[in-house]
Amino acid sequence: MSVLANLTDALLSGSIEVIDLTAPLSSDTPLLELPPEFGQTAQFQLEEISNYDDRGPAWYWNNFRTGEHTGTHFDAPIHWVTGRDKDDISEVPVSAFVAPAVVIDVTAEVEKDPNFVIEKEHLDAFQQEHGPFPQGGWLLCHTGWSSRTTQETMINNTETGPNSPGMSVDCARWAAEESVLQGIGVETIGTDAGAAHSFEPPFPCHAFFLGANKYGLAQLQNLDMLPPTGAVVVASPLKIVKGSGSPVRVLALIES
Ligand code: MN
User: Fold this and answer.
1) What separation in Å is there between the alpha carbon of 82 and the centre of ligand 1?
2) How far is the C-alpha of 138 from the C-alpha of 134, rounded, in Å?
3) Where are the domains of the chain?
4) Cα(87) to centroid(ligand 1), Å
5) Are 44 and 64 in contact (CB under 8 A)?
6) Are strands 250-255 and 245-247 parallel, antiparallel or unpaired?
7) Residue 60 Cα, ligand 1 centroid: separation in angstroms?
C-alpha cells in the first residue's frame, strides 16, 4: 500500500488524529500592543455584504479587515529588518507548511514566573530525553499562555510593560543559526517574550529566526494535546504578495 493510502486509511480509522492549534478569529481576538509612537496592527473585523436580504437574497458573505499578525498567524522572514531581503509570505516554500514538530513543556516554570524564558540548556535537556530535533521542524513552546484569551490577560501589562514568557537571546541565536529547526511556535501574542523590548538585541526570536530565513507561528492553542515528538504540523498561510505574515489555520496530525 502506498504511503498516502496508509495516511488516508489512518485518518479514516482515527489512528491519526487531526488537532486544531488555531485560536478563534474575531473582533475579540487579542492584539499586539506597541508603544503609541509606532504604527498599530488592526483588529479582525467582519463587514457584512449581505445576509439573505435585499443586498443579496440567496447569499450570506462578508468582507474582512485584519492585521497580518492578528490571531494565530505565520511570520515570514521579511517581517523583520534582519530578514528584509528574504522571503515574503508568498515566497515561503510550500514544503515549510507541512513539517514535523517537537513540543517543549514549560508550563510549570511559567506558572511560577510569567516572564520565564527558555534557555539553551532546556533545549539540550529536551534532546537528551527525546532525541535530536527533526530536520526542518518546528519547536513549539508549550507555556500554557493560550488559556489567556482576553486582551488584558494575554498582554499582562504592568508598569514595566508586557509580562509573558519567551526565549533568551542566546537560545534564540542558537536555535535560529545552528539548529536544524525551521522555526518557533508559541502560544503568546508574538514569538518573543513580553519583556524582549529590553533584551540585547531586542526581540531576539524575531531578529534571529527571521534573519536566518526561518519562521514563526504565534497564538497557538491546544499544545497540551501534542506529544513531545512525532506530531506533523500543517500551517498554510494566505499567499499574500509582499505580505509579512498571514493569519493561518494550524493543524497537527498525531498518532492516537
Ligand atoms: Mn507576528
Assistant:
1) 14
2) 8
3) 3-34+68-255
4) 15
5) yes
6) unpaired
7) 31
Q: Please give the Cα distance from 206 to 77 (Å, whole number).
A: 9
Look up 130 and say whether it is catalytic: no
Question: If you measure from the C-alpha of residue 244 to the centroid of ligand 1, how many angstroms do you get, rounded to a whole number?
Answer: 8
Cα–ligand 1 centroid distance for 245 (angstroms): 7
Give pLDDT tens digits for 118-144.
999 999 999 999 999 999 999 999 999
Q: How far is CA 230 from the centre of its chain?
A: 18
State the fold for domain 3-34+68-255: Glucose Oxidase; domain 1 (3.50.30)
Model confidence band, residue 1 (pLDDT cutoffs 50, 70, 90): confident
CA–centroid distance for 146 within its chain? 11
Of 69, 73, 79, 142, the active-site residue reads 79
pLDDT digits (tens, 9 = 90+) for 158-201: 999 999 999 999 999 999 999 999 999 999 999 999 999 999 99
Got the DSSP string for 171-200?
Answer: HHHHHHHTSS--EEE-SSSSSS-TTGGGSS
